[in-house]
Design brief:
Elements lengths: L1 E6 L3 H12 L4 E5 L6 H12 L13 E6 L2 E7 L8 H4 L2 H6 L3 E5 L12 E8 L5 E9 L1
Parallel strand pairs: 2-5, 2-6, 4-5
Antiparallel strand pairs: 1-7, 3-4, 6-7
Helix pairs in contact: 1-2
Length: 140
């Protein structure tokens, strides 16, 4: 487990550190309160991967797909799910079993359907409102 402290100015560096720490892990689960910076960090990680399209929160579409030179990135936002089984309706199992990157916000909403191994990314505010505490932990 490692911990990073980042600001917007150093977000690109933090994104590169996340990818380096992730190594072979392609499922990255983002935990944090509303406004903690989950989507902002995902945008920076996608930029580090070489995604050229606009990255935005899939709050209403539930999943966005982005291309990068090495394949695909699936970006999920489970916040609006009313029940965990709604994730099955949009094919969460197929996405998670693919060899593509899967970045998920609010994964706790579908805890029963999460894979056995993933990179857990917990983001929280610091005393300085411009900085975030980013904790990385490999699970499984």
């Amino acid at each position: 487990m490692i911990t990073l402290v980042s600001s917007i100015e150093k977000l690109d560096e933090a994104a590169q550190e996340v990818l380096q720490y992730a190594g072979a892990y392609k499922t990255l689960l983002f935990f944090g309160d509303m406004g903690a910076g989950k989507t902002t960090l995902i945008k920076a990680i996608c930029k580090s991967l070489g995604v050229n399209s606009a990255v935005s929160s899939p709050t209403f579409s539930l999943v966005n797909e982005y291309e990068y030179p090495g394949g695909l990135v699936y970006h999920f936002d489970c916040y609006r799910l009313k029940t965990p089984t709604e994730a099955l309706d949009f094919g969460i199992e197929e996405y998670l079993s693919s060899d593509s990157y899967c970045f998920m916000e609010w994964p706790e909403k579908i805890a029963d359907f999460l894979p056995s191994s993933y990179l857990k990314i917990s983001i929280s505010h610091q005393v300085d409102p411009q900085k975030r505490h980013i904790q990385l932990e490999k699970i499984g």
